[in-house]
Amino acid sequence: MDMMLSRGTKKLLVTAVATLFVFYLFYRGSFTAKECPKTESMSKKTSMISQDGTLYEYDRQSPLIFIGGVPRSGTTLMRAMLDAHVDVRCGEETRVVPRLLQMRSHWMKSQKESLRLEEAGLTGDVLDSAISSFILEVVARHAEPAPRLCNKDPFTLKSGTYLKQLFPNGKFIFMVRDGRATVHSIITRKVTITGFDLKSYRQCLQKWNAAITAMNEQCKELGSKNCLPVIYEQMVLHPEQWMRKILNFLELPWDDAVLHHEQQINKKGGISLSKVERSSDQVIKPVNLDALSKWVGHIPDDVVQEMGNIAPMLAHFGYDPEGNPPNYGKPDKFVVDNTNDIKKNDAEWEEIAEKVKSLSKKDTMPRGAKNDESKDFDQ
After folding, report:
1. Is 93 an annotated catalytic residue?
2. What's 92's DSSP letter?
3. What is the pTM of this model?
4. From the candidates 35, 57, 93, 118, which is the catalytic residue?
5. Residue-wise pLDDT tens digits, 63-112
6. Which pairing describes strands 88-89 and 55-58: parallel, antiparallel, or unpaired?
7. Tell me, what DSSP letter sits at residue 72?
């Protein structure tokens, strides 16, 4: 029989059999897909085992905590205080989460790019599944597991409503600080942010105003049950009052440890700090008043005189644009005692801060290296 078939006939038969096989696989796959529809309850789980052998599983239904705000607004202090809670783990900034969200935002804003993605089969559902899986893996695996996971990447709040779509049980903490203090800190500590001109207080205050306006809109859209604005100065003045409010919002039990985060810095099972984050050398100290009014006397006179017009969001959040120096309120005795202790033992605290700066999980390039053009934050 084989001898009687021409080479062309053999090719035709092979092609026909291959085609039928492909159709069979396609039909079988379609049938299986119909029999097993995708549901939220079947979303992919990320599993981790803690050092004590406890198994933790996370998925898109997990009640993740997101801390956001303009950089230098107290986001690191907030995450350190939450990290001190026995049930919470935040960890260092991931940096990749806000960049991925920014990339997705650019895709969605471009009608041409959106069409290309749709034509390639990358529908909204496909992208949401992929992006949520990536974020969950990063947040879960970049540090030790815990009952509640927390992410602190300041600019993620600009994508708050989308993150809520990905993680419907997520909660958001919106850190707000006096824009004058934020900008002074950005400039003096040379925190590079895309679009911010570190040589101009006026321009940085305008950028602060635009960024915090966008975040405030996201927080309002998320609603009071999902997003809690936290005024940095008030949290510093009255830490127990505000931490009780925050833990209640997050549906977490009270833990006195959140008022003494400095006791857990870089301890086993405690709070891990990154030497390349600009706030690490500050949050090693207990909550104190040192940073509240450092900006006074450093902003150019012409900018001070026009502050209300340059940064109208100051008044929106209850700050007095003409208050120079400002009156944020009277601190709790606990905070006054902390501040006095830091002043009394300044050399000792500075030594601890320098030690934190020198620690790292890996050898890293020094800050400001000439061949490193990356920004501290993209937005």
Report:
1. yes
2. S
3. 0.83
4. 93
5. 999 999 999 999 999 999 999 999 999 989 898 999 999 988 888 778 88
6. unpaired
7. T
